[in-house]
Sequence to fold (97 residues):
Amino acid sequence: MTVSRQHASEHRPQVLMDHVRELRNRLMLVVVVLLLASSIAYVFREQVIMVVLEPYAAASGDQRLMYLNPAGGFSFIFLVTLYAAIAVTIPALRGSW
Fold:
């Protein structure tokens, strides 16, 4: 009886470590995909911003966006490219790649 308990306790940490390795590998994949997608979205930032602002432009006519602080333009571009990258990264989070 003690042999089977000892064998079971030796097997459990190995299974746990397999899950930890799998989690680490998936998180690394998500980080790599997020970095690549955000850098690609930054390259195409003008097109992405046009798609995001299209409903605003249709509804507001000639009005333009106004930034309320000096870094407003940069933070807007940064957030739009980050959100586009997150949208691309979601399939990697689910593990469907």
